[in-house]
Amino acid sequence: MSPTMIAPVVVEENNKYQKGVKHLCDNGLTKVPTKYIWPEPDRPIFTKSDKLTKPKQNLKLPIIDFNELLGPNRSHVLRTIAEACETYGFFQVVNHGMEGDVSRNMIEVCKKFFELPYEERSKYMTSDMSAPVRYGTSFNQNKDNVFCWRDFLKLYAHPLPDYLPYWPSSPSDFRSLAATYATETKEMFEMMVKAIMESLEIDSDDNEAAKELKEGSQMVVVNCYPPCPEPELTLGMPPHSDYGFLTLLLQDDVEGLQILYRDEWVTIDPIPGSFVINVGDHLEIFSNGRYKSVLHRVLVNSTKPRISVASLHSFPLTSVVKPSPKVIDEHNPSQYMDTDFATFLQYISTREPKWKNFLESRKIHHL
User: Fold this and answer.
1) Which of 30, 72, 99, 218 could share a disulfide with 158, CB 3.0–4.6 Å?
2) pTM
């Protein structure tokens, strides 16, 4: 085949993948396309010196009981939060008040959205990162050399009245259920910020950062991971840290989330109805490195679809993020350069966003 004939075939092949992995699966798939096959060392299980790497036992994250946080044992719970943020960068929250219909309805309506015909879902497909609604695939489909086994729906959610009219109108109850979910996760985030500040011994009532976070950005990201015929060859999401301050993650009952703990990938046991909360890059900067934004990734499986809903919260997009003055002094100088959203966008526009590369680029290396 001549080069002039090959080029259109390559373009058509790439266009097929741009439509998302759910579209591929709906049209029948028995093997993972080459576009989704990760290099051997990056796969979930790979051979090394002819030995199969054994999967580690699942990790049980520290559990924060919201009732306890709001009760007389608050100081003990705050110590647990501090230890979790320092050691794991993750913890799970139970008894948060959203265990019932709000969480269950959100998972169900998101499943229905991804079951819509491709033509309906694709109305929201755009490469504009500032779009109020963005449907897409992989991690960053415009930059990824190897694709991830994931489709997503991203919704800007604060201020909610500004963005709600742009959200999907199908399924018919999507907007109302997602709006309730976004509102209640925002309230939970604000209570968690107060706890985080206290755990850092910062007075949140007299703190400009806490006020900024209350008026800050919120993005709801719905992730869809269809069953994969060869899950050992690919990833649902690559190793990455979250850009914002805190992420509140709701999962269905299918495991898949892994974190890097003591240089090993370990799977997080999903607790029904719980939220997994993780430290983002902005909180690592704000705490001057005391709290860790930890690498995590997502595995897929061959039998069950998986849905997760992440609510990502941070400072307003126009804010400058820097270590809190309360955590730095002459003995503990600032470890990070000031940063903002424009710097982040500029960074990811020129390279694949992966690992903790952006955060590493903001570190100050003291002599």
Assistant:
1) 218
2) 0.90
Mean pLDDT of 138-161: 90
What pLDDT, in 10s, does the model give residues 144-153?
889 999 999 9
Q: In the chain, count of helices (H) and strands (E)?
A: 12, 14
| Separation between Cα atoms, residue 297 and residue 305, nearest integer Å | 17
HSE (CB half, 13 Å, CA atoms) of 282?
27
- Residue 21 — left, alpha, or beta (φ > 0 → left; ψ -120 to 50 → alpha)? alpha
- Ramachandran angles phi, psi of 141, nearest 5°: -65, -20
Rounded to whole angstroms, the Cα distance separating 284 from 86 reads 10
**DSSP for residue 315:** S
Q: With a cut of 90, say whether residue 7 has pLDDT above it.
A: no
**Alpha carbon distance 39, 104 (integer Å):** 37
Contacts of 42 (CB under 8 A, 6+ apart): 235, 238
pLDDT single digits (tens) 261-304: 999 999 998 888 899 999 999 999 999 999 999 999 999 999 99
DSSP 259-293: EEETTEEEEBPPPTT-EEEEE-HHHHHHTTTSS--
CA distances from 211 to 199, 215, 366 (A): 17, 7, 31
